[in-house]
Amino acid sequence: MTINISDVAKKAGVSPSTVSRALTRPDLVKTATRKKILEIVEEMSYSPNPLARGLMTGKTNIIALIIPNLTNTYFAQMAEGCEEALRSKGYHLIIGNYFEDNTMELKVIDAFLKRMVDGIIIAGSLTAKDFQSIFGSRTSIPVTFVNHSAELEYGYDSVIADEAHGARLACQALLERGARKIAVVTGPARNPYTKRRLAPFKKELQNANMYLDPCYLTEGHYGSIYTGFEAMSKLLSLKEPPDGVFAFNDTLATGVIKAVLSKGLNIPKDVAVVGFDDIPLAPYLTPSLTTIGSSSFDLGKEAAEATLGPIGNPYRPPSK
Fold first, then answer.
1. Phi then psi dihedrals of residue 92, to 5 deg
2. What is the tens place of the pLDDT at every residue in 93-129?
3. What CA–CA distance (Å, rounded) separates 266 from 272?
């Protein structure tokens, strides 16, 4: 039998709105009345409808995470980190996957804004123009950015990994393995992850009196192993194929490894390969993948905590 708020109100001899206040704003209800209502709630095993409670209180206890691709283990780990932080505070996580499509990203964010979420975490690729078009004046709820472009200053919390340092380490690792014809397999060019990893990698090559030949610059999709395989296959078909490759994430690197092995080549003797993100699968690949660590679980956890901060203290200044 389904028990609703009207059933509780009828038995308590009060209005449904009084029951609602007793459950959500107990300070507004007389002690004796509140006690009576709570006893009836326990007796009848009444559980308030979350949607209805959200409409009455303006809170849903739901935080949205916007990510470019859930098939990418990096973002799956980020979601786990968010969930761990939120669960302990009585919040729930919902995920919006926009499949690395910027137009879809804007639609997903807009949809969550209309669904009364208490906060939004964005691990996406919004530009300043995108931000203004989608948020406009609807920025009263907490928004936290994860690994977003450093040049975008919205006055919101942001959690950022040191990708520049990681890219430099990747370059150094390839040079230490003796690679001199070094290629990169990136994600989409407009993606902020690509921009933040490519520039410092090129700079580190220059510090070694080398440069990135345009023919060694190839592009894939961060959530697709196949595009890593395809990009590396093209590189290996060059007259002078590379002897070292930096794949901009471990998903792409998995495809790169497959392409190298399919040609009967040895890793790292013939081609050294370095990935980025250190996903759990990396050490179990054959050969195991050399990769640069970037804990997306911790980033997700920090982002969730940052999002909850303004909910409890709306006047708290943003942190970066």
1. -120, 155
2. 999 988 877 788 888 888 887 777 889 999 877 776 7
3. 9
Neighbours of 195 (CB within 10 A): 17
CA 142, 80, 123: angle at the middle one, nearest 5? 45
Distance CA 80, CA 15 (A): 41
CA 262 from centroid of its chain's CA atoms: 32
Given a contact cutoff of 8 angstroms between Cβ atoms, the answer to whether 279 and 250 are in contact is yes
- Beta strands 119-122 and 92-97 are unpaired
241-276 b/e (C-beta count within 10 Å ≥ 16 → b): bbbbbbbbbbbbbbbbbbbbeeeeeebbeebbbbbb
To the question of pTM greater than 0.85 for the whole model, the response is no
The number of residues in the chain equals 320
Closest CA to 25 of 56, 67, 60: 56
